[in-house]
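Q&A log
Question type: sequence-to-structure
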Amino acid sequence: MTNHDLHKIAFIGDYLPRKCGIATFTHDLRSAIAKASDANCIVVPMDDIVGGYDYEDEVQFQVVEQELDDYRAAADFLNFSNVDMVSLQHEFGIYGGASGSHVLALLRDLRMPVVTTLHTVLSDPNQSQRAVMKQLVRLSSRLVVMTERSRQTLINTYAVPSEKVDLIAHGIPNRPDIDQVKLKEQFGVEGRSVALTFGLLSPGKGIEHVLQAIPEIIRHFPDFIYLVLGATHPSLIREQGERYRISLERMAKELRITKHVSFYNRFVELDELTEFIGTADLYITPYLNVQQAVSGTLAYAFGCGQAVISTPYWHAEELLADGRGVLVPFADPKAIAREVIGLLADEPRRSAMREQAYLLGRDMTWDHVSQLYVNSFKHAIEDHNIQRTPLAVRTLDERPLALPQMQLDHLQHMSDSTGIVQHAIYSIPDHGHGYCTDDNARALILTVLIEELGKDSPDVQMLASRYAAFLNVAFDRDTGRFRNFMSFDRRWLERDGSDDSQGRALWALGICIGRSRRGGMVSWARELFHRALSSCENTTSPRTWALGILGIHEYLRRYHGDRVASTMSERLARKLIEMYESVATDDWPWFENVATYNNAKLPQALLSYGRSSGDARATEIGLKSLRWLGEKQRSPEGRFRPIGCNGFSRDDGTTAIFDQQAIEAHAMVSASIEAYAVTGDAAWAEQAHLAFDWFLGRNDLGMPLYDASTGGCYDGLMENQVNENQGAESTLAFLLSLAEMQQLASLE
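Response status: OK
Response body:
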């Protein structure tokens, strides 16, 4: 196979002029491959701002980062454009969906081989990241990593065959000859000792520890100056403004080193960057994340022949081994000062280090690296033994059915400064019935799922704050329990809420802790979670136990080492298992002698517990009981038929058909998705779709229950008509189901 067999290559990832390291890498890789292969190299970038960026002509299709449909449309575009090969740049944070799962929808529909460059390889991923990574590995023909440590992690942690992984260094420009004396004169630092750090600024870069080292450095080198080159990361600007940079400037003033520090708050082009590197006497990367698999800034500085001092994150530990650089402990200003002073005082050692780095860097130039990528592409084509027809027509059976767009108009309409109102008369909020903890907990969960889907906004954050405030005041710190019902004039109507409201509130708090990125929300929820944790155990309600298990499971996403929470989850699971084993038979594999409401939450809780703890018995009971419940809730026509509000019993044997409630459909959607996550069996994903379709009109009356214009949902399906009131419980059941189905859609 020759290079000319690669006629058309598509590059997917962030792209210049977007300001981020992946965008620069994709641009440089694309330019180098175009030169090395003579292929037509097109780009499909991710857009994180409205309207995208002012791209060059090679960009032929744009994807809005958080729009799942755009990913599928991009796959169609590439399939119909006769693309021979796709080069994907992967970092969890640059794609939409939970843990960047939207990109899987694109990969799943492609009809050509994909070579994925992994810019991050986590050795201890959470469940969501592991699930995405597993699919990414499966859908990629080959994987490229930039360090041996990353390659070993793929093999050992993700069970990737070694022959599927290519180790290719981060590319760097071929540095021209430089005259450091002239460059120092150009930058006005002639006669001074210069240290440099560059890259997009964010708290994980550890700049503060270098600043704290400077007072000791200038005792030995009074002419020392530290250049910090780079704009604040755009996403950080949107979330926090310039808070980090401002804190660094104030720290420099407090340390009385303002004459020795210079911040360049801009994103520099390659030519200017090379000049800055040439000006410096040494380069410092004080990063704080040990698992950072690659640093483009480190590769650039090293390859340009700089003496480097770095913390021992993965990339630095490998690149600077055998004396090619200096490693210092994380967050250790004294060590940084010691090594800076040592290198500046030892010109021969520093020169030898620079020469060694420059020589090794010749194998990292884009001219060399691009040929290794071309070889990887050719291997991928040769290994691509699944013959796909790029222009094949796909039936509905071959691709996921469309989901409605999420509309929050009715949710906002039902919410006021207190929280969400319980009931509605048609679509009008019924203030006469006030509020309840149950609905505000559900609503808070929804805002976190929306945040996780990348659809966060000031309006959603405002709603989240109101629902959280309701739960906060609902909690009685004297009893450790939540009150439930509040009148419209903000008077509590009871001294103690239902058992179910305790479990549902704990579930909401756990999701805030485990999934939200809002620091204040997480801290608040953690404090309340610990106060409320014990209340679930002191009840006789299996649904409260189940909701408590789900809340703990979410909490352990972030604090998986918490023994108290883990022990409580185990005790609650044991209660459910013991209840099941005392009641269940082959004909009635259920927890109680009756099945009433919110039924699927019971098997879901055991599946969740079994998945996280490895308890095979819990998983077995969860699957068996959910399978039985699914069969009980299916009409002769094969539609989802939720148990009517009167339920059914073991003794009676008659199943109530009406009134059908939205809460049952949501419970089955959630539980089926959990079963799919546990087993990988597509039948469970199909059951989730079946339950969700109940909202859309695939039900006994053939009538939709959701209002497409507002996202509201009718309160139930009666024998001959729908209940046209759009209360909080039903509306939230639909919106929660939709959010979970959107997450599922990118994983199927």
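Response note: The chain has three domains: 8-171+367-386, 180-364, 408-746.
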